[in-house]
């Protein structure tokens, strides 16, 4: 009698744990796929999954020389991790329902009368993926209830995945269209100097529209990458182009226009700068990254002289008074630690301020 009571207690304990695990997985999937607001609680299975997977993946990539080999390894991570996460959710739900069947003594049997946890797991798997083979049948009302519940849950999960993956693809495409266009406007990798040079003279009239477009792009980037943080790991399709580099270039050019250049459109540059800076700060918060200082100055004195020379050659003159220089340094300090933290975490190099003399547009270098 005592042994039977002990077995019953164990089964009920397993059933309670399985029920909690089911709710836990469903809530995490809801937060990841449906909830559009950034989740602020400290522990999330999805965040832990990406941390555990990305850390060794990034360590392996760091050991590879910079170039196509490293990028190929890093490019695989985003899509593969998404498939692995969905598979992990599905396996977790299948196992938890199997444990529920076993813990509640639901009595699943095949045509030969065999039962046990293996049969429960098999029944849970075929029910969740809505196969409905019928070779294992529930023999109690509770078992039938669990089977119907899991079948409906599996159908709903499949529908969510079918809707979720295209959303990720569409958000990625919207992000990449503007990044691809940046090659002709700012080079690959993009630089603030080239962006301004290619909008000198007749092109100055286009600067307000360009900055307005990138203000909207920054807002869309913020919205999509907070709703779907996995997008941050998806890398651009072209060499020397990343969303971190594009965002940094926009910030660099806006900071120059606001602090050092006596040129319109200063108001539009301020708005674009504010939106882009908002994006980098919030995205650092999504990954719980602390702002970090780069190993060296992104714009040392020699590069600053080159920047002045390049811009003056096309009619832009940088102000060099103490107030303007101080404002420029102050603006840089509000975003550079954040873009450096994102760059270091995602292994996406930051762009220079001035292009290398040998740099060519991406379409020139495509084989």
What is the ordering of alpha helices and beta strands? HHHEHEHHHHHHHHH
Biggest sheet details: 2 strands, antiparallel
Binned, the helix content reads 55-70%
**Number of discrete helical segments:** 13
Strand arrangement, major sheet: 1-2
Quick one: how many beta strands?
Answer: 2
Distance between the termini: 78 Å
Structural class: mainly alpha
Shape annotation: elongated
Relative strand content: under 5%
Provide the gyration radius in Å. 27 Å
Write structural notes for this entry:
Helix content is 68%, strand content 2%. It contains 13 helices and two strands. Helix 3 packs across helix 4 and helix 9 (266-286) crosses helix 12. The longest helix has 46 residues, at 141-186. Residues 362-367 have low confidence and may be disordered.
Q: What does this entry show, briefly?
A:
This protein is mainly α. The protein has helices spanning 2-33, 45-63, 68-103, 117-128, 141-186, 192-197, 207-227, 243-259, 266-286, 301-312, 322-333, 336-346, 362-365, and strands at 108-110, 136-138.
């Amino acid at each position: 009698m005592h042994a039977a009571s002990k077995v019953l207690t164990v089964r009920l304990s397993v059933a309670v744990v399985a029920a909690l695990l089911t709710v836990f997985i469903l809530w995490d999937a809801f937060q990841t796929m449906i909830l559009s607001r950034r989740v602020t609680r400290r522990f999330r299975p999805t965040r832990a999954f990406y941390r555990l997977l990305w850390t060794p993946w990034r360590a392996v990539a760091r050991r590879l020389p910079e170039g196509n080999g490293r990028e190929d390894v890093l490019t695989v991570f985003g899509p593969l991790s998404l498939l692995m996460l969905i598979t992990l959710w599905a396996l977790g739900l299948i196992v938890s329902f199997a444990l529920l069947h076993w813990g509640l003594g639901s009595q699943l049997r095949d045509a030969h009368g065999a039962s046990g946890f293996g049969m429960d797991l098999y029944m849970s798997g075929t029910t969740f993926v809505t196969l409905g083979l019928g070779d294992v049948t529930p023999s109690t009302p509770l078992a039938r209830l669990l089977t119907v519940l899991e079948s409906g849950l599996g159908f709903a999960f499949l529908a969510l995945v079918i809707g979720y993956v295209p959303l990720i693809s569409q958000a990625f495409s919207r992000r990449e269209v503007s990044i691809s266009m940046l090659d002709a406007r700012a080079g690959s990798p993009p630089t603030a100097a080239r962006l301004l040079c290619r909008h000198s003279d007749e092109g100055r009239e286009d600067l307000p529209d360009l900055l307005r477009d990138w203000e909207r792009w920054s807002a869309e980037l913020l919205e999509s990458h907070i709703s779907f943080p996995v997008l941050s790991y998806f890398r651009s399709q072209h060499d020397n182009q990343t969303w971190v580099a594009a965002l940094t270039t926009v910030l660099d050019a806006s900071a120059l226009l606001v602090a050092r250049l006596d040129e319109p459109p200063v108001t539009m540059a301020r708005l674009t700068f504010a939106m882009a800076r908002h994006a980098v700060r919030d995205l650092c918060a999504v990954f719980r990254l602390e702002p970090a200082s780069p190993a060296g100055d992104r714009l040392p004195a020699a590069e600053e002289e080159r920047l002045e020379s390049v811009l003056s050659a096309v009619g832009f003159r940088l102000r060099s008074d103490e107030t303007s220089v101080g404002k420029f340094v102050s603006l840089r300090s509000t975003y550079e630690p954040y873009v450096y933290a994102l760059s270091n975490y995602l292994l996406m190099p930051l762009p220079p301020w001035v292009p290398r003399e040998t740099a060519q547009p991406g379409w020139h270098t495509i084989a």
